[in-house]
Every structure is written in structure tokens, then in C-alpha cells.
Structure to design on (526 residues):
């Protein structure tokens, strides 16, 4: 009998990498240790779930009124008298997000609250259009299929491209990719390959801006890792799922209830003022007039939140760690505009569309295509709920001007919206995503710190695993929990990632040879 290879639930890539759980007891003997998890986004929820499932006493503290972090949602009253759930914008749940999906399966075993969108189309203002609907999933056929079907590549372009410069895309491992490429910008790396200009803008710039950063300021290593995760290193494909209800109903409210069923003390609308290390071990946390003691602490905060808390909490770890945290940067501001229109967009419009060349507009979502709440509103009113994103806005950008510009670009992109009346609109202007700057990798915190009882989690963390964005947040939360569980001799949780190396041994060897030859050429003649 042929033994079937173990895979994450729902996964297709037979080369997915399993990180086994560390051994230990399933629950503590005697009084359980206690942990404060600060931050109720994906990373904090993942850490709290992983610890509480092993019997650790957990307090989860979140500054905002609900869990979810940058994927939180809140109720708003529209001008037509109806209520709606507003969020900070669309997020794609890729099939490669093994650990995030495992977290969601705690309350949705078959992921019935996620819906797959049928395509991931990209449009350029010049009229060029790309799609990933019919691109093969498995590398290298995925890259070949994209090049053969994309209007941005022609046979005449191939001789002009620098194949040697593209080899690092085929030989990705961590941290080696950062050693090679962190000092180079994503823009300069792509320019060195000499991709066709149209492909550069339509495909690669759209991807790099998903990090909320202009490619001129984004580390090439981070972008190359992204291509490995989503395209060149994974056979899960580039199509993705979206929650079929607003984030609170689909994700966070069920997980909030699950945490409480595990005995977690979930405290929303609670800011931690400062933390102090205690002489007997552990920490004192102060929130307003309340102080509590915990044996361990997980900091699952965004960049500015982490920096602010540490300014008020000296001495938790060594001085060089504090200095590195202080140097972290936040990505430029971004805008999410949601419009409730009095008439529908065209029936053939995609649920999600990536754009390039349309001014400040980076993507458009038509929410009634998949979200129950928006669909109900659309069916009742005959209108559409449209969401517009503008990333990496200039430092001197004016919010009202940018709001007007994205709507003007929508009218160019979908001309039928020019005559639509905006029944109501909500605009979210935020600046709280991590910035993966050129040569910034060594400053980013790892999960562990010099204090064995203090962990860090979030999408700003470097994990030495091929994960990014929401999956990095979920994975780092689980890693933080696992590190503490190991200290307490409690069983850890298994994790999964996409393959940790390029899939082709031949291309990896070529890339290694190319790197070695460049180093040799750079050596002085003796």
C-alpha cells in the first residue's frame, strides 16, 4: 500500500514543509504558567490560542474595541438608514497561508466562511490585461504559463532580458536571500533583469505595492521571497479566498468566543501603559490603575505601538535590541475608500482587480460579488458596494485630494460609475503597516529576545521561514507560543510552510554558481 504524504488540510502542494511540534506534556502539572499577550490582531490571537490550548493562563489585551488588529471591523450607519460593517479593506487569503488557515479552522473546520474568487485579474491603463485564472499552479510551469499567456511578454523581449540577474528568483532560502539582496531595492533588482516595461508595471509593481511600499524603497529580498511564496516556489497557485461575511462575523467574533471557551481573559478597549521586569521573574503590566503579574509576555503590536510601549518600559531586554526596534520604520500612508452606489457596476466586473497606471488607484473590489452583507444591500437597493485602495501615498499627500483622485480613477476604469450617485462613503486613512526597507532586515526583531520570557510576534518579525503578510503574523504568533511552551516542557504546535528552497535543483545550482562567479570576479588579483 502506498503511504500518502502528510499535507496540511486542503493543501495541494506535495512539497509543503512540515515543522513538527516540539514534544512535551499536553497540559501543565500543578499551577499553570501565565502569559500576557499584548495585541489582538492575527499574531496575538494565534499566540493566545496556541498557549491556551496547552493549559496556559492567558490574558489577551487589545487597545481597540474589538479583536482583529488591521483586519478589525466596526458597525456604521449609512445615509439610507441601513447599517453596514466598515473595515480597513480587502485582504486575500491565499492557499499558501497554511498556519493562518489552521487558526481559522479552530472555529470553521471546513473553512466554509471563505469563498474562492474565480480570478486574479490585473489591468493597466494602456489597455493591457493579465489574468491568473488559467495559469498552471506548479512551478516552473506557472512562470512559463504566465509568460506565454501574458500580453506583456513577447518573443522579441526574451533576448533583451538578463537571465543571470533573474536567477536569484529561482534560488530562495532564508536568510541567504537577505544576505544577497537586502541591500538592493525591489525597483533596481527588477530593472537589472530588464523585464519588459509593461510586465514591470502590470505584474511586478502591483505585487510589490502589496507591501504598502513603493518598490524604490522596498527590499529586493522581501520581494523575491514574495515571488517564491506566491508564484515560483509554491504549487498552491495565485488564486485566493475571501471571507464571505465581514471580518468580525466571519473571523474574529467566532475566535473571540473560542478564546473565552479556553479560559482566556480577553480584554478589549485596554491599553498597556508600561511593563516592568520583576526580580523574581516575569513581568508587571500596568493598564490604567490596574497592575497584574505574568510569567511571560508576547508583544504582538504594530511598529509604532511596539516602539511606544518600549519607550515607557525600559530594561525588558538588552540595549542593542531596543536600539534596533527604535530604527524600525512604518510604511507610507494608504487610503481605503468604500462607496455605496445607487446603481450596479457592470455585471462582468471582477470581484477584485489589481490596477496599474490609474493614478493613485491600486485595486478595486466589488464587495457584493462575495460578501453576504454587501450582497444583501445591493439586492435591496439595486446598487453596488465598491472599495478602492491607494497604497504608498506621498508624505505630503492630502487626504481629501487623494479621496477625490481614486473616485476619478474609478470612473476611468469602470465608466458606468460616472453617472452613479454615491449614497454614502467611508474613507480610512491609515499608516500602521511595517516597512521592509532596503538594508533593514537585521534591525527587524526575531520572535525571541535576550529575555527568555519575552517574545515578539507580528508581520514585522523576521522568522527565517518563507512566510509573509498575514501568514507571517499567524506563524510568528505560533512560534512565540511554541518557544514558551518548550520552556515549560509543554507540547508545541506543528507548523507548515511552502518549500523552503527553489523547486528546481538545476536552477538552484545555476544561481549558486552565478553568485560565486560574481564574488570571484570582485576579488582583487594577487
Amino acid at each position: 500500500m502506498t503511504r500518502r504524504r502528510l499535507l496540511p488540510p486542503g493543501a495541494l502542494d506535495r512539497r509543503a514543509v512540515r515543522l513538527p511540534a516540539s514534544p512535551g506534556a499536553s497540559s501543565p502539572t500543578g499551577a499553570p504558567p501565565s502569559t500576557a499577550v499584548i495585541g489582538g490582531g492575527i499574531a496575538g490571537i494565534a499566540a493566545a490560542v496556541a498557549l491556551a490550548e496547552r493549559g496556559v493562563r492567558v490574558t489577551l489585551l487589545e487597545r481597540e474595541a474589538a479583536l482583529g488588529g488591521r483586519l478589525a471591523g466596526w458597525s456604521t450607519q449609512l445615509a439610507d438608514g441601513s447599517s453596514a460593517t466598515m473595515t480597513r479593506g480587502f485582504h486575500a487569503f491565499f492557499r499558501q497561508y497554511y498556519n493562518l488557515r489552521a487558526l481559522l479552522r479552530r472555529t470553521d473546520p471546513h473553512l466554509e466562511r471563505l469563498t474562492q474568487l474565480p480570478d486574479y485579474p490585473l489591468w493597466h491603463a494602456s489597455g493591457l490585461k493579465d489574468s491568473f485564472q488559467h495559469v498552471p499552479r506548479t512551478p516552473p510551469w506557472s512562470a512559463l504559463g504566465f509568460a506565454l499567456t501574458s500580453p506583456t511578454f513577447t518573443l522579441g523581449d526574451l533576448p533583451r532580458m538578463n537571465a543571470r540577474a533573474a536567477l536569484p528568483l529561482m534560488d530562495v532560502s532564508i536568510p541567504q536571500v537577505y544576505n544577497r539582496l537586502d541591500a538592493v531595492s525591489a525597483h533596481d533588482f527588477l530593472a537589472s533583469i530588464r523585464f519588459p516595461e509593461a510586465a514591470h508595471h502590470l505584474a511586478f509593481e502591483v505585487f510589490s505595492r502589496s507591501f504598502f511600499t513603493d518598490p524604490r524603497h522596498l527590499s529586493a529580498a522581501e520581494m523575491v521571497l514574495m515571488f517564491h511564496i506566491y508564484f515560483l516556489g509554491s504549487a498552491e497557485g495565485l488564486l485566493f479566498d475571501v471571507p464571505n461575511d465581514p471580518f468580525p462575523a466571519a473571523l474574529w467574533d467566532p475566535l473571540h468566543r473560542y478564546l473565552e471557551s479556553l479560559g482566556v481573559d480577553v480584554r478589549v478597549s485596554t491599553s498597556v501603559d508600561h511593563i516592568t521586569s520583576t526580580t523574581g521573574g516575569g513581568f508587571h503590566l500596568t493598564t490604567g490603575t490596574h497592575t497584574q503579574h505574568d510569567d511571560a509576555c508576547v508583544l504582538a503590536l504594530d511598529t509604532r505601538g511596539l516602539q511606544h510601549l518600549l519607550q515607557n518600559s525600559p530594561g525588558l531586554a538588552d540595549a542593542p535590541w531596543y536600539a534596533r526596534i527604535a530604527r524600525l520604520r512604518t510604511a507610507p500612508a494608504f487610503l481605503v475608500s468604500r462607496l455605496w452606489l445607487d446603481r450596479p457596476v457592470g455585471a462582468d466586473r471582477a470581484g477584485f482587480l489589481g490596477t496599474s497606471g490609474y493614478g493613485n488607484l491600486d485595486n478595486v473590489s466589488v464587495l457584493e460579488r462575495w460578501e453576504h452583507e454587501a450582497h444583501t444591500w445591493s439586492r435591496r437597493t439595486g446598487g453596488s458596494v465598491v472599495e478602492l485602495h491607494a497604497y504608498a501615498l506621498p508624505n505630503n499627500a492630502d487626504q481629501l485630494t487623494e479621496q477625490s483622485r481614486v473616485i476619478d480613477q474609478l470612473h476611468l476604469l469602470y465608466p458606468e460609475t460616472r453617472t452613479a450617485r454615491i449614497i454614502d462613503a467611508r474613507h480610512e486613512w491609515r499608516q500602521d503597516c511595517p516597512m521592509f526597507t532596503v538594508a533593514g532586515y537585521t534591525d527587524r526583531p526575531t520572535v525571541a529576545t535576550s529575555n527568555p520570557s519575552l517574545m515578539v510576534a507580528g508581520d514585522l518579525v523576521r522568522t527565517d521561514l518563507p512566510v509573509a503578510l498575514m501568514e507571517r503574523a499567524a506563524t510568528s504568533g505560533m512560534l512565540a507560543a511554541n518557544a514558551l511552551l518548550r520552556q515549560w516542557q509543554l507540547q508545541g504546535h506543528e507548523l507548515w510552510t511552502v518549500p523552503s528552497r527553489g523547486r528546481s535543483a538545476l536552477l538552484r545550482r545555476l544561481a549558486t554558481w552565478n553568485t560565486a562567479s560574481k564574488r570571484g570576479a570582485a576579488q582583487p588579483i594577487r
Observations:
- The chain has a mean pLDDT of 91.
- The two ends are 61 Å apart (CA to CA).
- The CA atoms of residues 299 and 456 lie 5 Å apart.
- Residues 469-487 form the longest helix (19 residues).
